[in-house]
Amino acid sequence: MPDTTRESDSIMTAASRSLATQRRGGTHRPAKSIGMGSSQAKTKIWIDRAKYFAGAVLAILVGGGIAGLVLNGIGFIGVMMIALAIMAAAFVFSRYPSIKTPKRAELKQGNPQQMVARTELWLEAQRPALPPPAIRVVDQLGVQLDALGLQLEDLDAGHPAMAEVRELVGEYIPETIENYRKVPEHMRREDHAGGTADDRLVTSLTKLSQEVDRVTRRLAEGALDDLAVKSRYLEYRYGGDELLQDMRGDPGTSGTPLPPSVSAASTPTPAPAPAAKPPTSQKSQ
After folding, report:
1. 23 CB-near residues (< 8 Å, 6+ apart)
2. Which domain holds residue 191?
3. Tens of pLDDT, residues 207-220
4. In this structure, are 115 and 199 located in the same domain?
């Protein structure tokens, strides 16, 4: 009886791959962007495609009009050629320019917005090779990278946190995924040294996600402190009559009354009436 073990392994591998594809939404529709950075990069590509297509259609129509003037009409064949040319332009510019996946060396280059957008595009390109639990962590990383990018916008390029973020985003995250992809697919679910490659990938990505969140919160602490101080200042500066009543302890308020000495000092004292002059006595003659 022929050995069908190898064929069975191939069938199981294909079935697992198909299941992962269906969990991501199937092959009939593209996966959504994991963050605003990659979404904006894709939107920019589609805007460029629309501009190129509009320019091509304009050139085709102008060329057809000139040909009609020179030839005294282009006829039915000319109209069909123009239509086919427009369809060809639509086919070409729906695919060009293409969305290029950044290289790993490019992830930590550029300003924070470029760094975040490139990392998100790179992570999206890796999703088909990842197990479903890791895909969920990658999607979470996309949202966290957006928040981190906002904190880095006003940060000086020489700030220590900037170097830490570049190392975290440009080295640790891609290195973890690349190490996982080096493992043969049929060995990723085999137990090795106390765990499978899938489990180790999910654990590592989860720790990296927590670190990104920690750095974001640390950078946001300054803004939170400034907001609290400003709010407190505005409360005292523009509190109005309600704040004054609260400080005096007037009825209907919940404040603590001020001491009598302070209350008396804050109440205006009426000015004393002028003293009457004594009557002048007349000398007896």
Report:
1. 132, 135
2. 104-234
3. 999 998 998 888 88
4. yes
